Protein 1
Amino acid sequence: MTKSFKRAHNFNAGPAALPLAALQKAQEELLDFNGTGMSVMELSHRSKDYEAVHNRAIGLLKELLAIPENYDVLFLQGGASLQFAMVPLNFLPAGKKAGYVMTGSWSEKAYAEAEKLGEVFVAASAKEGNYRRIPATEELKYGSDAAYLHITSNNTIFGTQWQDFPDTGDVPMIADMSSDILSRPFDVSKFGLIYAGAQKNLGPAGVTVVIIRHDLLDQANKKVPTMLKYGTYAKDNSLYNTPPTFSIYMVKLMLEWVKEQGGVAAIYKRNQEKAALIYETIDASNGFYVGHAQPDARSLMNVTFRLANEELEKKFLDTAKKSGFVGLNGHRSVGGCRASIYNAVPYESCAALRDLMVSFRKENG
Ligand SMILES: *Cc1c(COP(=O)(O)O)cnc(C)c1O
């Protein structure tokens, strides 16, 4: 049944690479899941077989991220983009203001959406200089009466990442972790709510993971439509209506793979090694390649860089494409090049990219 195949060096920003082992497991189980004679896609979401998949995915995420007891893991749809609206709908009451730390295009979108629903303010911004850095903790300006403080932990488009997180005390910190969740260990208890579209580091598109602290659920605005209320998902274990069952199944397979790799600490070590291959090549290139992010804000997930001019960038991207590399063009809003090296991107693909960058420079430098 297995045809011979060739896997691409996949540097897509999202949807992105999935572990080969997870894809093969899905292939193996596609026609007959667990002796049911059905695909996971064909199971009732109320069946025991599906429920086991659902609960295993939740349990694994809790285990891998060491999520404390007083948090729930929820599965939603609508992507991270719907969270931009759901967060203020639930947590920004009249008379309060929510602070946003601006670190890139996704923060801007989150802010713009919240602005439609309530009062917002910029707690700090790195826009000056085109989002090359992450504001220092001392720069964050917000009162202890703020509804919440919103941050974007990894800036997918500009290639910057928070290196450590502030302590916001009684002000709940809410984070968009779409592009770096599960890439490194961090202290979940610093956050009130975390959200992430799955299609970068957790699995395929179609499901959004939310990690929410119980006391926030109690404080949420009750007059929100049912499907836009976190409480609806928390109350019914994300089974109020039909969840995206196959996407959640793929998340489960991806989490099992992370566990097999040795968990988040082991993945983090490998992510550091992968990113170092490319950043060291940039730094040793004598300015042939120029990184966008300030070194102290560099992302382990999205490496952004430019060449001397657009012509040379086009030549580099064409050469890469011919050699089997996918997804290296920068986001259309910034240009240049970007290598997205999420958890599932193999070390070998990063080493191959390094080799390509070195030989391209030799031929064109
Ligand atoms: C990709 C991305 C989004 C948008 O996600 P959708 O699931 O497409 O809505 C939001 N925030 C960040 C940080 C992202 O990387």
Protein 2
Amino acid sequence: MLAPHGLTVEGPTSGDAAALAASAAPRVLLGECLASLLRPTSFEAERYRVLRHAVETMRRDAHLQVVAVTSPGTADGKTTTAINLAGALAQAPGARVLLADVDFRRPALTRQLGLEDRRPGVLDVLLQPEFTVADSVRRLAQFNLSVLPAGVGAVAPYEALKLPRFEELLEEARQRYDYVVLDTPPFVPVPDGRLISGCVDGFLVVVAAHRTPRKELAEALGLMDPAKVVGLVFNGDDAPIPPYYSRYADPRRRDRSWWRYHRGFYERRTQREESPSTWSRSDGPRDA
Ligand SMILES: Nc1ncnc2c1ncn2[C@@H]1O[C@H](COP(=O)(O)OP(=O)(O)OP(=O)(O)O)[C@@H](O)[C@H]1O
Ligand SMILES: [Mg+2]
């Protein structure tokens, strides 16, 4: 099945993909926030790779496997961050990565990914014994990524997250995947984050640059178990792309001379066995 912007989806489907795919407008909007998936060589994708590296390191050093992405308030960029982090993690050869939507109030994973439906998903697994994680995930094979939508169920989010089955669901996910990235609701206004705290290994807290009030961030951090806060992610930072990087980032600007210089840079470094702190400015890549 082909969903908008060309994601090939394997797994349960519900049939209205054609209607969504017929709409040109969502394609543009969707693509803008999917750098890790659709523009892996972009500067934005590299920033998410920095986050991936931090999570991979914590996986190795601190057994971080189930990571929940949250933020103090609404629209800070939780879903965007969760998708791009999962996409970046999934680029490692052989990595088994699950991206799951546990924001039952404003489920957005399927919409942002351009998938056609949000069931079956987490709620279906929680409420109906015949559903398992294994047979509810959608596989985005070209991105090596598995997605578990929010699902549908006539239950209050608070009650759903308190079900013992929620822990079982995460346990099944732990068995099947190396990384489980959860897209969750905002931490301050609703109790969901506090409920799942005991089942996850850590929270990444998204802070929207120039937008998230400092007071709200302090309130969120005050509500969280400090041991579970594994990092803050500044979303929408408008710092300019360094000139050095803009040349490196854009494949259309990779001329041969740059690559020659790049190779020489590392060869010289190895030969001299110098530490990074002793490199002079002239050692770095520069315009050809
Ligand atoms: N880094 C970014 N660059 C461009 N647009 C972004 C970025 N981060 C978020 N957005 C846009 O901002 C809006 C809110 O982002 P997102 O849905 O990720 O936030 P959220 O915290 O998950 O929201 P909610 O609280 O409703 O779950 C979306 O339209 C998204 O496309
Ligand atoms: Mg969201």
